[in-house]
Description:
CATH class: Alpha Beta
Number of domains: 1
Bound molecules: NADP nicotinamide-adenine-dinucleotide phosphate
CATH topology: Rossmann fold
Structural class: alpha/beta
Order of helices and strands: EHEHEHEHEHEEEHEHH
Oligomer: single chain
Strand order of the largest sheet: 3-2-1-4-5-6-9
Largest sheet: 7 strands, parallel
CATH superfamily: NAD(P)-binding Rossmann-like Domain
Shape: globular
Amino acid sequence: MAASTPAPQEPAGRSPAPATPSVPSGPSGPGKGGAVVVGASSGIGAALVRRLAGEGWNVAALARRSGELERLARECQGLPGRVFVHVHDTRDVEQVPALFEQIGRQLGPIELGIYAAGVMPKVDRQSYDTAVDLDMLAINFGGCVAWCNVLAGYFRSQRSGLLIGISSIAGDRGRKPNPMYGATKAAMDHYLEALRNRLSEAGVHVCTIKPGYIDTPMTQGLQGLFWLISADEAARRILAAGRAGANVRYVPRRWWFVGTALKSIPSFLFRKLNF
Length: 275
Ligand SMILES: NC(=O)c1ccc[n+]([C@@H]2O[C@H](COP(=O)([O-])OP(=O)(O)OC[C@H]3O[C@@H](n4cnc5c(N)ncnc54)[C@H](OP(=O)(O)O)[C@@H]3O)[C@@H](O)[C@H]2O)c1
């Protein structure tokens, strides 16, 4: 997987960035642990960071676009929790263990990890492009594995923690428009289910989120969207689902009916559908 992006930055946000990444602050905010949000520079991830900082969590916010991350950290100044930004490309999987350690030193005990990073490039119906597909696989699933593995090992040793993966209803069936996007989400569903089963005996919960249409940069310009909700409303529902101990949660919940209906359509009929 590619390793061509900048090294992780020192923390930014409410306080001036220290010269070294050592800000052992103990539990964050009023009674909260630290939280890690991967894919935090826009959309659902950014909305999760705003909500968590508002609740008093100290949050590590990760993504590639430093400008967007710094804007988010500035926006969160004055909230009870602190936001520490890290420029990171989830394709750089070999960076993950060291970066996670650095984040641990900043945040103190980590109680929440969320993998929200994802891309959905526009794919032509006649296109079969291996480079595009494998890049999507590396970001949407490879990065998810790298981050969930370090979080899973950490939470297991700690014997507590909540791990949330943002999958999609697109993983429910193999649809025509973007075969690899759906495949990455189906892989996430399977992998997160296995982690949930493994970690349950250690008191760690793993929650799979399957959004429908959310109003974010990813869906901008797409036609025919319905039941669209804001990123902030999605973030509220995602955190509520994780805290309620949901295993798999469609967001909003009415998408469960759609997912269930889609899964019940036999293949010979499903392939005739043009969506
Ligand atoms: N919007 C929807 O309707 C919808 C529906 C179902 C599922 N989802 C899923 O929800 C998640 C969030 O998407 P969104 O709708 O909020 O879209 P978005 O605004 O485009 O957010 C995607 C986030 O992923 C980050 N990201 C992408 N590639 C990355 C990489 N290589 N390394 C690190 N971070 C990376 C982006 O940051 P940088 O570009 O700065 O790196 C951004 O913060 C995605 O997994 C998406 O598949 C969205």
